[in-house]
Amino acid sequence: MKTAAVKTAEAKAKVKVPKAEAEVPRGVKELAYGIEIKPSSIDGKGCFAAVPFRARHKVAELTGERISRVEAARRMRGKRRLHICAIDAYWNVDSSRGGNGTMFINHCCAPNCFMRVTAGRIIIYALRDIEAGEELTLDYGETYHDDSKLCRCGAPTCRVTMNPPRERRR
Length: 170
Known about the structure:
By secondary structure, this protein is α+β, with helices and mostly antiparallel strands. The protein has helices at residues 4-14, 69-76, and strands at 35-39, 45-49, 58-62, 65-68, 84-86, 91-94, 106-107, 113-118, 121-126, 137-138. The chain is built from two helices and ten strands; from the N terminus they run αββββαββββββ. The protein starts with a helix and ends in a 32-residue tail after the last strand.
């Protein structure tokens, strides 16, 4: 007769989760649980669900080096790809340094995830149920990108540029 601990261990062993050491992109310490990095049809590399995520449940925390707005501005000069996300008016997270793979979540005008800043941490939640294998996407809202940077999401509701039109900004 199997004990409850043995049954739990066997159940966990059946769940296929990618190992962080499989392919960890440069600048990433370790992949967040339940995600994997693969080529994206939206742009470059993308972040994909390796396990299903339920609507309104946490997917991952955006991690990286915490930097000031002055340092963020310095790092952004002349860069085409930005992996910097604001926490508040002063602090930012540079996920290209010590992140967990969430830096590869691409923008989409019809996203399946959303972000919330809670107690100085950036948490990513599922907007709807997400199946394993689906690319994780966020609507970046207003970004540090130039207003003319084109969106490549291909969604039927695509707004054409990464940043929302000026009249829709908060």
